[in-house]
Design brief:
By secondary structure, the chain is mainly β. It has three domains: 26-171, Sandwich (Jelly Rolls), CATH 2.60.120; 192-364, Sandwich (Jelly Rolls); 372-416, no CATH class. The chain is 9% helix and 36% strand. Strands 1, 2, 3, 7, 10, 13, 14, 15, 19, 22 and 25 form an eleven-stranded mixed sheet that branches. Strands 6-11-8-9 form a four-stranded antiparallel sheet, with no helix packed on it. A four-stranded antiparallel sheet has the order 18-23-20-21, with no helix packed on it. A hairpin with a 2-residue loop joins strand 8 (114-119) and strand 9. The longest helix is centred in the first third of the chain and has 19 residues, at 2-20. Bound molecules: 2-acetamido-2-deoxy-beta-D-glucopyranose (8 copies). One 2-acetamido-2-deoxy-beta-D-glucopyranose binds at residues 36-37, 47.
């Protein structure tokens, strides 16, 4: 009897534990090449991509790599076709799509692959593997305008195209709304948590949207170097009001750096730039300032004196302590090597403070082939045929294997084989 009761309680606890960890709606996490479903240490539920009928799977070998989602890859022939993952989305919703690539010498060939990745007809990036043991990760933010999206690999220049993971995360409200969102995707270059206590990123469950906020403690070439003397990390256990704009996680906002000598400076390389992009900083005053103290500072970007005019006064702008203030630029032109500085104003008694920042590059959306409606009408009659499953745009970045397209920027289908 007692044993039964105990089992009952244990089972109830299990149940509560499992439901507490239930997956966020709008999360899709594909373990490409993986053999089965599992839940990782963060509580993210991974599913195998074994419904995909093309490509081959292989195991990798990387010393010390224990994360199951990276242990296998799916890879594709280095031919002139494209290989696509198609997923359902909710139209008029914004999403983060994240893909990752850990080569790990899966082909026992030690040839570092180079290939292209596209979202629909739009070229997203060129994947260039330069280290067998390092995870390459890409993130893109987009507004869904149709009920499915296709992410495609193509154009192998060296080695064989492959993929380790494919994730979709859904945003809500107007998070990452921009006035350009029907013409441009946002390709994420930097999302940095300043004042981080460890090298670990902050992500789900601290961030309900599972964005990855990189630590400023990471040591990497051309990542947050040229740091001003007097830069100190600060943190608070107090809760932060983050309920506006991009809703950065509280944990990210609870830490910051302060330029105790009046300046904060950093240099970092911005993948994808030069170009025009979306750049925002996240501030919250997390230090008790005495009534006589002020913290006022200005952003200084080399060659852009016009940006320096506006002074930041976090408490005044956020209307209080421990509250988010998120100033930024919805369209700013940035170089690849980005130097930025915050200087306190002459009437400020305290140095500048920075909790987090995020920079994304605008990627112009390619509308793709002109005859999509007609061809999809045809395909709907053959939905189960292999040749009807190629996915993505009929013509871009390369045509389906049984089609010929012309070379217009919005191509037309000219013939079928
Ligand atoms: C894995 O998860 C997917 C999606 O939840 C489900 O459709 C599939 O049946 C699961 N597979 C196994 C072997 O449990
Ligand atoms: C990869 O490793 C798993 C587990 O060790 C094994 O079951 C599977 O057969 C391997 N797959 C390949 C393609 O070698
Ligand atoms: C693997 O882990 C060991 C022990 O923790 C460490 O000494 C070694 O440098 C690690 N190797 C790699 C490639 O990270
Ligand atoms: C394929 O990649 C090469 C080298 O990266 C590039 O020059 C070429 O334009 C690409 N081809 C297509 C069709 O995108
Ligand atoms: C958006 O999601 C956040 C985090 O899950 C939640 O706190 C918030 O209430 C949601 N907002 C809307 C408008 O649904
Ligand atoms: C604020 O400044 C006034 C005048 O300079 C001074 O008398 C007072 O002690 C200061 N208060 C604090 C809390 O520093
Ligand atoms: C941003 O500004 C540049 C230069 O003024 C312009 O060419 C571009 O179309 C604007 N919009 C986006 C989304 O890049
Ligand atoms: C910013 O502050 C530093 C150090 O105090 C100073 O050397 C530099 O000239 C200042 N820059 C500007 C543009 O005011």
């Amino acid at each position: 009897m007692e044993v039964k009761l105990m089992l009952f309680w244990i089972c109830l606890l299990c149940f509560i534990f499992i439901t507490a960890k239930a997956q966020m709606p709008g999360f899709v996490s594909l373990d490409c090449g993986g053999m089965g479903n599992f839940t990782d240490d963060l509580g993210i539920e991974w599913t195998s991509d074994n419904k995909i009928t093309f490509g081959e799977i292989a195991n990798i070998s990387v010393a010390n790599e224990t994360r199951k989602q990276y242990m296998a890859v799916r890879y594709f022939p280095p031919d002139n076709r494209k290989y696509c993952y198609t997923l359902d989305v909710k139209t008029r919703s914004r999403y983060l799509v994240r893909t990752s690539f850990l080569y790990g010498n899966f082909d026992n060939n030690n040839v570092y692959p180079k290939f292209d990745i596209s979202l629909g007809a739009t070229h997203w990036s060129t994947i260039v593997i330069s280290d067998a043991n390092t995870v390459e990760e890409l993130e893109l933010i987009f507004l869904a305008t149709s009920p499915t999206i296709a992410v495609c690999l193509s154009n192998a220049t060296t080695g064989q195209p492959f993929i380790s993971t494919f994730e979709l995360r859904q945003f809500n409200g107007s998070v990452y709304h921009t006035e350009f969102e029907t013409q441009f995707f946002l390709s994420v270059s930097a999302r940095i948590n300043f004042g981080a206590e460890t090298e670990d990123p902050v992500r789900y469950p601290d961030d309900p949207f599972d964005r990855i906020w990189k630590s400023d403690s990471l040591k990497k070439a051309n990542y947050l170097v040229d740091v001003a003397p007097g830069t100190e990390k600060v943190s608070t256990p107090m809760s932060i009001d983050i309920n506006r704009d991009e809703r950065p996680p509280e944990k990210v906002m609870q830490t910051a750096v302060i330029g105790t000598k009046g300046s904060l400076t950093y240099r970092l390389n911005l993948d994808g730039f030069p170009g025009s992009g979306w750049a925002f900083s996240y501030f919250a005053e997390i230090i008790d300032l005495s009534p006589n103290d002020t913290r006022k500072f200005r952003l200084i970007l080399p060659g852009m004196p016009e940006l320096t005019k506006a002074a930041v006064n976090i408490q005044e702008n956020a209307q209080g302590k421990n509250r988010l203030y998120e100033p930024g630029y919805t369209n700013i032109s940035l170089p690849f090597v980005c130097n930025f500085r915050f200087n306190s104003t002459s009437d400020s008694s305290k140095g500048p403070l920075l909790n987090a920042m995020e920079i994304s590059k605008y990627v112009a959306i390619n509308d793709g082939a002109l005859d999509v409606m007609a061809i999809n009408g045809l395909l709907s009659h053959y939905a189960l045929a292999d040749w009807a499953q190629e996915g993505g745009d009929p013509c871009l970045p390369v045509p389906w294997s049984w089609l010929k397209c012309n070379s217009d920027s919005q191509p037309r289908i000219v013939s079928m084989y």
